[in-house]
Design goal:
- This protein is α+β, with helices and mostly antiparallel strands.
- The protein has 2 domains: 12-154, no CATH class; 162-209 and 246-277 and 296-343, Probable inorganic polyphosphate/atp-NAD kinase, domain 2 (Tumour Suppressor Smad4, Sandwich), CATH 2.60.200.30.
- The chain has helices spanning 36-56, 72-86, 118-128, 136-151, 221-224, 280-285; strands at residues 12-15, 30-32, 64-70, 98-104, 157-161, 163-170, 177-184, 187-192, 197-204, 248-261, 269-275, 301-313, 320-324, 327-338, 347-351.
- Strands 6, 7, 8, 9, 10, 11, 12, 13 and 14 form a 9-stranded antiparallel β-sheet that branches. Strands 2-1-3-4 form a 4-stranded parallel β-sheet, sandwiched between helices.
- Strand 3 (64-70), helix 2 and strand 4 (98-104) form a beta-alpha-beta unit.
- The longest helix has 21 residues, at 36-56.
- It starts with 11 loop residues before the first strand and ends with a strand.
- InterPro entries: PACS1/2_C (IPR019381).
- Residues 34-191, 237-353 form the Phosphofurin acidic cluster sorting protein 1/2 C-terminal domain.
Length: 354
């Protein structure tokens, strides 16, 4: 797959032409990765090249910069391949051998990276918005900048913290559930609610690994079920401007939106939600006109500094649909989000231009 890139110092660009077909017209050395299997194969071959260098040299290998062009789903595929390929590399030096140069697609959750680098922001603008209007010389200048970014580097490196989503999934027609650990950088979102009540348990300001983390200690599925842990949590009435210092809380409600996010520079997570309003019929019984604002027009709520969160439907016969950095997972019995991936690979190194 990487036969066209025998020299590690030259780097390479990975993308999915299926998702972004016009990239095939951009004259850069790119590898088409249409599936997660191909993405993992590409990253594993890059890691193998670095390993071969280490086996035949006493010095450390040069930094390998891997270009990534794509949306949230593709970037998450790169992240998962990176975490899996370095999982068995015990030496911490491996965390310094690879860096990723990311050009996020328009409207990507990772566009915040471009806000940290004016040159990267301009490069994204040239590729996604101005490419068809650029002259030949301007296009050459853009591609040269992309090549220099990978070969010469020179920009700062930011280490994005990797979060962990544990999804408890059920298969159709089967009572036995299975677990999936998914790394994420930006967002975990509950996609469909169907007006079902949801139970949330969250821990705040716990910078260390939470107790009974499933990557550290194997636990029975009943032990991980949030419904069994209600008694150990203090029930809190969370409000947007609450200044009460709490370490843990619990909420049971019907939600209109429910999103767990993390900004580029924050080690902990933020819980963002809007509760569902009461039905119009109930308001009409109370003498309220349709569309009239009431106290039940719930404002958005944000809970910051969350280290761990557990979420499940209040009904045992209902499932959730969860979106993790662009990937959609259905038939989720419950899920858990932790602010820190529970292996030694705790951050995703991103190379900037400036």
């Amino acid at each position: 797959l990487l036969s066209a890139y025998p020299d590690l110092s030259t780097g390479c660009w990975l993308s999915s032409f299926h998702d972004l077909p016009h990239l095939s017209a951009v004259p850069i050395p790119a590898i088409d990765c249409p599936s997660s299997t191909i993405v993992k194969l590409a990253i594993s071959q890059i890691v193998s090249k670095i390993q071969n260098f280490c086996n035949s040299n006493s010095s450390n290998p040069p930094i390998t910069r891997v270009g990534v062009i794509g949306g949230d789903k593709f970037i998450n595929q790169i992240l998962r391949a990176y975490v899996e390929c370095l999982h068995h590399k015990s030496s911490s030096n491996w965390l310094h051998y690879l860096r990723f140069a990311i050009i996020p697609a328009p409207h990507s959750l990772m566009c915040a990276i471009a806000g940290l680098d004016g040159d990267l922001d301009q490069l994204c603008h040239d590729i996604w918005e101005r490419w068809v209007d650029l002259s030949l010389s301007e296009r050459v200048s853009v591609t040269e900048k992309m090549t220099t970014w990978l070969t010469a580097g020179g920009g700062a490196c930011i280490n994005l913290p990797i979060g962990e989503a544990l999804l408890q999934m059920t298969e159709r027609g089967q009572e036995v559930s299975c677990r999936m650990f998914v790394p994420f950088l930006a967002e975990v979102r509950v996609a469909h609610f169907f007006f079902l009540p949801i139970t949330l348990h969250f821990f705040m300001n716990h910078l260390s690994s939470p107790p009974n983390s499933p990557h550290i200690r194997a636990a029975d599925s009943r032990e991980m079920d949030p419904s069994n842990n209600v008694n150990m949590l203090s029930s809190q009435n969370v409000t947007p401007n609450s200044k009460k210092d709490v370490s843990k809380g619990s909420i049971k409600a019907s939600f209109r939106t429910l999103v767990i996010t993390r900004s580029c520079s924050q080690p902990l997570l933020s819980l963002n939600f809007v509760k569902e309003k009461k039905k119009e019929k109930m308001l009409q019984k109370l003498g309220m006109k349709k569309g009239q604002k009431t106290e039940n027009d719930n404002p958005p709520v944000q809970v910051v500094a969350v280290s761990r969160l557990l979420c499940s439907c209040a009904s045992k016969h209902a499932d959730l649909t969860v979106n993790v950095d662009g990937f959609t997972y259905e038939r989720i019995r419950y899920f858990q989000c932790s602010s820190q991936w529970q292996t030694h690979v705790k951050s995703f190194p991103v190379s900037l231009i400036a």
